[in-house]
Specification:
Number of helices: 2
Transmembrane segments: 7-24, 30-49
Shape: rod-shaped
Helix content: over 70%
Radius of gyration: 14 Å
Number of strands: 0
Distance between the termini: 26 Å
Family: Belongs to the UPF0391 family.
Protein name: UPF0391 membrane protein CPA45_21685
Organism: Vreelandella nigrificans
Keywords: Cell membrane, Membrane, Transmembrane, Transmembrane helix
Low-confidence stretches: none
């Protein structure tokens, strides 16, 4: 999931540099949402992970 967020971030940066503001905006929004989901799942797994 973090890989997908990074992929959309790179797409947003490249689209922004090339002047495609609509595509850059959508890609950056997707990247932000995916990163937020990844962060929430990571924190949940830290607190509810198996204890040895």
């Amino acid at each position: 999931m973090l890989g997908n967020a990074m992929l959309f971030l790179i797409i947003a940066i490249v689209a922004g540099v090339l002047g495609f503001s609509g595509i850059a905006g959508v890609a950056s929004t997707i990247a932000q949402v995916l990163f937020a989901i990844f962060l929430i799942l990571f924190l949940v797994s830290l607190f509810t992970g198996r204890r040895r």
